[in-house]
Specification:
Structural class: alpha/beta
Oligomer: single chain
Shape: globular
Order of helices and strands: HHHHHHEHEHHEHEEH
Helix content: 40-55%
Radius of gyration: 21 Å
Number of strands: 5
Strand order of the largest sheet: 2-1-3-4-5
């Protein structure tokens, strides 16, 4: 996607670019039953949801937001441009006109974040071996204090590259909202130039209170995710300390990993519980770590 400020193709911008404010305002416009203008049910139907699915969403606190989140999770074509097209199709141009400035601002910020990820990585002044010189390494993350104070995080995020769009959403929902959590996202926070396995172990064991594991079919094929998960489990056998939290955000065709079946998962795939998903996850990550 070419994110040039004057020529952004909204049909290529994923729905994850829209922040909480826009989603809540969409709910304010679409949730009320309106005999004149189309409501959320018309939008859901235009998005391809079945009658039974739409009936199930009626129990959600904000049906419009629930529909939007599930559409984003299950449809690869769920883009900002497609959303605007759906709203126009159901004759809610009033919503498009009122929210367009906020949407354009969200898209701009999203594009800027992509540009930062694409920038050449920062270089460490000295690249040494994989063997740490001190009990706790410094200079391995972007915000490490040069004087020696290591950067700490609320959670290490274990994910594979194909699930990075959901990781972006996690950043938006947990860091950029009232929860104010600090996540360790390897592709964003870790400096290049050191042994991957050593750095990963250091972050999980010493820098992060907990680890969130993003489960998907692709996760099952990732050697890095397998190592991170097993290492985290070795630190808390029997789930003592509740350090590891599995998250399922999309349907799977393969069995759930057996080594995680004894843990309570945070399931984003159930429409009727999606309203509680981020609050539950944030609360779990905010709890003090027991020894």
């Amino acid at each position: 996607m070419a994110c040039v400020d004057s020529e952004v193709d909204l049909w290529t911008v994923p729905l994850v670019a829209l922040n909480v404010t826009v989603r809540k305002k969409l709910g304010l416009y679409l949730n009320p039953k309106n005999t004149v203008a189309a409501d959320w049910t018309a939008v859901a139907e235009a998005m391809g949801f079945s009658y039974l699915e739409i009936k199930n969403y009626e129990a959600a606190r904000s049906p419009a937001q629930a529909v939007l989140e599930n559409w984003q999770a299950r449809c690869s074509g769920a883009t900002v441009g497609k959303l605007l097209s759906v709203l126009t199709e159901v004759e809610r141009t009033d919503v498009v006109e009122d929210l367009r400035p906020l949407i354009d601002e969200d898209v701009r910020k999203y594009c800027e974040s992509l540009k930062k990820l694409a920038e050449p990585p920062l270089q460490v002044p000295e690249v040494d071996s994989c063997v740490p010189r001190t009990p706790e390494r410094i200079g391995i993350t972007l915000e490490d204090d040069p004087e020696g104070a290591p950067e700490k995080f609320d959670a290490f995020i274990c994910y594979c590259q194909s699930d990075f769009v959901f990781v972006h959403e996690m950043i938006r929902e947990l860091e950029q909202t009232e929860y104010g959590l600090k996540l360790c996202v390897f592709d964003r926070d870790v400096l290049p130039g050191s042994c991957v396995w050593t750095i990963t172990s250091e972050l999980i064991e010493k820098r992060c209170k907990r680890m969130v594991v993003v489960i998907s079919d692709e996760y099952l094929d990732s050697d890095a995710c397998d190592f991170q998960t097993k290492f985290a489990l070795s630190l808390c056998p029997g789930a003592r300390g509740k350090r590891l939290i599995p998250v399922k955000y999309k349907s799977m065709s393969r069995p759930f990993p057996s080594i995680l079946r004894f843990l309570t998962i945070c399931d984003y795939t159930r429409p009727l519980t999606q309203d509680w998903f981020w609050k539950r996850l944030a609360k779990a990550l905010s709890q003090p770590v027991s020894s």
